[in-house]
Amino acid sequence: MTAPLLPRRALLAALAAGALPTKAATAPLVLGLAPFLSPSALLAAFRRLREHLERELAAPVATYTARDLRTYFENVRRGDYDLALLPAHIGLLALKDWGFAPVARTLPVTTTLLLVRQDSLVRSAIDLRGGRVGGLDPLSIIVASALAWLQSQGLVPGRDLLFVPQTSVNSGLYALARGDIEALAVASSQLLTLPADTPRAERILKSVGDVAGPVFVARPGPSDTTLARWRAAFSAFAPDPAAPLTAANTPLGPLAWSDLDPLSAYAGFARSLLASGR
Predict the structure, then answer these.
(1) What pLDDT, in 10s, does the model give residues 109-166?
(2) Does residue 22 have a pLDDT over 80?
(3) Which residues contact 38 (CB under 8 A, 6 or more apart)?
(4) Buried b (16+ CB within 10 A) or exposed e, 210-243
């Protein structure tokens, strides 16, 4: 598992004090990864990108995640990561509210899926009344879109069903297989990055619809020259042609504010959740 991330200011202070190895002349570039997989699986999925960035930038790159999405988003907002992978609607918040800069897009879209067990008696949304639905967090655009669809079917979270947060997509599939939850909200692309030992006995109850894929943003502070170097390094990434296209393995295109404007409603919902602490 990944060690907890030292805040950037603590990392720099430790380097200055000699508390960390000083072979490198500068602190590594810190890349934050949104925790949608278990830490070891997440870091393995993005190893190719990390190694590519190290070659392109001729500098060490350290990848970090957090124990859950809310902690991760707070780390991002605080500036603990130089670069961060964010769900697209949180990327819009980072650009509009937190002073971050756009860096790169990953997948243009991914699909929100609501999964049930293969042997489940659930055949429609109404069968989930009184049941438990799992997912990463309502701050996730995947969970938000799944819960919005369930509400459109007359099922209000907290009244007609219970939402059960999951620490990762793979842990959610374990919970589904054990019967701890009756349904699980995931992105179609997330299912392509699972560890090989993840239980896979699910079927799709509902393909809810497409949402924008994750984006990379940069914390406030770097110069225009540095941002240009980072963007060029991301755009030069070549995915593994033998592996499926996922957020970790896809061509990385330029990102503009206007690309994210259609997500303003999701961003507003996330803004209110972050402000309320719910």
Answers:
(1) 999 999 999 999 999 999 999 999 999 999 999 999 999 999 999 999 999 999 999 9
(2) no
(3) 1, 167, 168, 170, 171, 195
(4) ebbbbbbbbbeeeeeeeeeebbebbeebebeeee
Helix (H) or strand (E) run with residue 265 in it: helix 264-276
Find tokens 């620490």 and name the residue. 167
Beta carbons of 210 and 158 less than 8 angstroms apart:
no
Percent of the chain with pLDDT over 70: 91
Within the chain, what is the greatest distance between any pair of CA atoms? 61
User: Which residue has tokens 């438990």?
Assistant: 132
Place of tokens 């940069």: 218
pLDDT in tens, 216-226: 999 999 999 99
How far apart, in whole angstroms, are the C-alpha atoms of residue 63 and residue 84?
10
pTM: 0.89
Query: Which residues have C-beta within 8 Å of that of residue 160, sequence separation ≥ 6?
Result: 129, 130, 154
For residue 201 the two structure tokens come to 């006995």
* Domains observed in the chain: 8-108+213-276 (3.40.190.10), 109-211 (3.40.190.10)
Sheet holding 132-135, edge to edge: 162-165, 132-135, 183-187, 109-117, 202-212
